[in-house]
Amino acid sequence: MLTKDIYTPQQLLSLFEERVAISNFNAFPPGLYKPVNHIMSMKGKCIRPLLLLMSCDMFGGNIEEALNPAFAVEVFHNFTLVHDDIMDNANLRRGVPTVHKLYGINSGILAGDVMLSYAYKFLAMVSPEHIAGLFQIFNTTSIQIFEGQQMDIDFEERENVSEIEYLHMIEYKTSVLLGCCLQMGAVLAGASEENQQLIYEFGKKLGLSFQIKDDYLDSFGEEEKVGKRIGGDILMNKKTYLFVSAWNRGNAAQKKQLLGLLKERDEKTKITLVKELFENTGARQQTIRTTEGLYLSAIESLKSISLDSELKEPLLEFAEKINNREF
């Protein structure tokens, strides 16, 4: 039986937006903080801080105390985007020019560096008994994210990447931060070690499922629903789960064709033939099975948490929306 009223996700987002509004980065020198304000002004989904707040609320924690750590993870996430855009030489982020394109690479690097420092500053704005636990989780996660980014860079130079290696890479690069946010919310609420680990596993597996489904929708989604041209990853020769699965399942002739298509200049032909290979090698079906398996495993972790089912319902609904999306 419920012993407390819990916030809706929209209510938590509103509280978080109020917290963000009081923290602009208008310090001196402006050459350092204008790039920071640029990336922070780009409206994102705020999934990571929302998960931290939802977890804290689910376990009966103080949402007011959780707002600073939630802001910390959003600043950290945006720091990684600034540096990722530099490494990818990306021109646009969320439809607007990237930091380094507007302000230069040196300013982009420094903006990211100071954002990382601010993330730690905001993370420490909690009760003293929570600082050590939060820092341990956050430090482990940030190291894994950097390791995952290096794996991704290394894979660009390799012809053979196994599905296990790919899953390990996206687990570190993307998924561990979702688990981290959920676990930090649990720590702030004083949840048991067992429940902390279960909520972490829920977030990590959901993140893996989310990323692989993104790969899938980029090739097999409906353009009007996805909101972008289908086949973008194919045109960029990205080693997605689909690509890795097709390579590892393909015969010699199919591998030769896949390699040849990396150099194909006719975009329509390239997208059509690569998608055919994804079908014929069984990569498409394998991707669907992997996504669904990870999602079901995530839900099992969530359901195993020792709380009333009503308290877990908001996170369950959140996961279902992510899993059932077509965009």
Architecture overview:
The chain is mainly alpha-helical and 327 residues long. The protein has two domains: 1-172, Orthogonal Bundle (Farnesyl Diphosphate Synthase), CATH 1.10.600; 192-327, Orthogonal Bundle (Farnesyl Diphosphate Synthase). It is 76% helix and 1% strand. It is built from 16 helices and two strands. It has helices at 9-21, 30-40, 47-58, 63-88, 99-103, 105-123, 128-156, 163-188, 193-220, 223-226, 232-235, 241-249, 252-261, 267-280, 283-303, 309-324, and strands spanning 92-93, 96-97. It has a two-stranded antiparallel ribbon. A hairpin with a 2-residue loop joins strand 1 and strand 2. Helix 3 (47-58) runs antiparallel to helix 16 (309-324) and helix 15 (283-303) packs antiparallel against helix 16. The longest helix has 29 residues, at 128-156. It is globular and about 60 Å long.
What secondary-structure arrangement, pairings included, does this model have?
Layout: H1 9-21, H2 30-40, H3 47-58, H4 63-88, E1 92-93, E2 96-97, H5 99-103, H6 105-123, H7 128-156, H8 163-188, H9 193-220, H10 223-226, H11 232-235, H12 241-249, H13 252-261, H14 267-280, H15 283-303, H16 309-324
Helix pairs in contact: 1-3, 1-4, 2-6, 3-4, 3-8, 3-16, 4-6, 4-8, 7-8, 8-9, 9-15, 12-15, 15-16
CATH architecture of the largest domain: Orthogonal Bundle
Q: How many domains in all?
A: 2
Q: Report the sheet with the most strands, covering strand number, pairing sense and barrel closure.
A: 2 strands, antiparallel
Strand count: 2
CATH topology of the largest domain: Farnesyl Diphosphate Synthase
Helix content: over 70%
Kindly state the mean pLDDT as a whole number? Answer: 94
The chain-level structural class is mainly alpha
Shape: globular
Instruction: Output the helix-strand order.
Output: HHHHEEHHHHHHHHHHHH
Question: What is the multimeric organization of the chains shown?
Answer: single chain
Query: Terminal Cα separation, in Å?
Result: 36 Å
